[in-house]
Amino acid sequence: MNFEVFVLGTSGMMPLPNRYLTSAMVRRDGDLFLFDCGEGTQVSLKMLNLKWKKIHSIFISHMHADHVTGLPGMLMLSSQVDRDEPLTLYGPAKLKEYIDANRRILDMYINYEIIVKVAQPGVILETDEFTVSAFPLSHTKPCVGYVMKEKDRPGEFHPQRAKELGVPMGPLWGKLQKGESVSLTDGSVVHASQVVGEKREGRTFSYVTDTLYLPSIAEQVRHSDLLLCEGMFGDDMLETALEKKHMTASQAATIAKEAEVRQLGLLHYSPRYSDGELRYLLKDARSVFGPTVLTRDRMVFEIPLKD
Question: What is the dihedral of CA 174, 176, 179, 181, to 10 degrees?
Fold first, then answer.
């Protein structure tokens, strides 16, 4: 089952020729999950051949323009792809007001249901296979981070063990794979633990942008396979980062190290840095946490299944 993360935009504050505004997309088992929707998001989606119709949910971190200006076009475009499922958006309390105002002022043609929910701390979306949780950050406006976490998968089923225990191939095997015990015709009972291995850990993606450094973030994103985290400034701009309630690249790396994540992807760069100068942010981050990547627009991360 695929679990891919597409970086759609990496710029903070304003779009640049090679950097659209901050946005990321998760593709899991064919469904798409959009995190923020800055200006230029649609362009990256088109270039990556990602299908608007497959967008399951949209998660907005906060109500600053560089994170929501791509939404009106995205919502209107979704009416052109024969969408027949509701689209749910999660974000701060003012998100609904923003959507409603745009629909009214722009006289949007929308032919599907739009549901807007406030991203309260805790689990905001749960299915049989995964959850999405929100947690508070500290910025100049109410802001949240997100964690998408797969539930543990059943352990590996061992057919030979089942045969040796007298379980015939068929429906009983299916029950055992689901963790159920089964009764045989001779009255004996076979438990799932006898033929199924240990549960296998699910995969985790975390998204953090526009916040002061907070030690509490590490606990929220602990053991993520991929953490996309803002590293807006270099260490020499620490005072500016504090003033604007943003993080430096090394602060993002500190969170990654403390959280024991597998990989950190920096994004939401200040426009003060040219593409070439971004290497200084990477240097700052890697001095703290080695498995750091300087993300670029339309970069793709594939998160493999765990054994």
Answer: 130
Tokens 């993080």 map to which residue?
Answer: 247
Say if residue 4 is exposed, middle or buried (CB neighbours under 10 Å; 0-12, 13-18, 19+). middle
Distance CA 169, CA 13 (A): 60
User: For residue 219, what are its two tokens?
Assistant: 């606990």
Taking only the tens place, the pLDDT of each residue in 43-62 is 999 999 998 888 999 999 99
Structure-token pair, residue 203:
């995969």
What residues are labeled active site? 66
* Number of Cβ atoms within 10 Å of the Cβ of 138: 14
Handedness of CA 205, 210, 213, 217 (dihedral sign): negative
Transcribe 186-251 into DSSP letters.
TS-EE-GGGTB---B---EEEEE-S----HHHHHHTTT-SEEEEE--B-GGGHHHHHHHT--BHHH
Report how far residue 266's alpha carbon sits from residue 249's, in angstroms, rounded to the nearest whole number. Answer: 7
pLDDT of 82 over the 90 cut: no
Q: What would the pLDDT profile of 20-35 be if each residue is shown by its tens digit?
A: 999 999 999 999 999 9
CA–CA distances in Å: residue 71 to residues 41, 60, 68, 76, 222: 9, 10, 6, 9, 30
